[in-house]
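Blinded run. Sample ID left blank on purpose so nobody reads anything into the name before looking at the predicted structure. Input follows.
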Amino acid sequence: MYEKIPSEPPPPPNATYFFTGSTGELIAYRWSDLSGADKELGGGESSSKRRKKATDASSSDVGVETAWRVRVADAQEAVDVNSLAVDASGFGPAGQLVVGGGDGAVRTVDVETGAVVGSNRAHGDFVHGVSLCPQTGLVASAGEDGLVCLWDRRAAGAAGGAAAAGKKKAAAAAGVRTLTPSSQKQLARPKLGKWVGAVALSGEWMVGGIGRQN
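Blinded prediction complete.
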């Protein structure tokens, strides 16, 4: 469940944002506010240091107003925001942010309002990485369950709430195709585990990183 935290003023149209995610929260700052906040953020510090402060601390600590703030929770428990990608493909509605979560869900969020506009739960464990194909608008996600999922957001429906037995059918109905790299002999790394920690997608290729299972 995503819960919009009230009391934040709506952002101006066509604003440009800096996004950061943490446990239980997704936050958007306006670049114009960050770049113009020298006094509040430490005078002569570099812009990279100021942005890091904005990432590591709350807006009240760094003197910068947030454009919006969204609580990320599943069954009232905070969800880790593990990966973010901005959709600049032009194949979906303009101005969307793709979010990979610790609850196994991949969500799309409107960058102007913070509203969740789509989701799927094709993964059964943490989503560690998300990527967008600029040529097609497809979303790739990599998870601790060993799956790489390709999501066509133009398909109707969503895989959210699917029972384990019907997850593949629900995922297919939502436009999600699942791949299991570890099932391929040339890709399997038994000593490292099956989970996939990163993924990158283009119109011609996809690259995934198989990580160590703790």
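Unblinding after everyone has recorded impressions. The CA atoms of residues 38 and 45 lie 7 Å apart.
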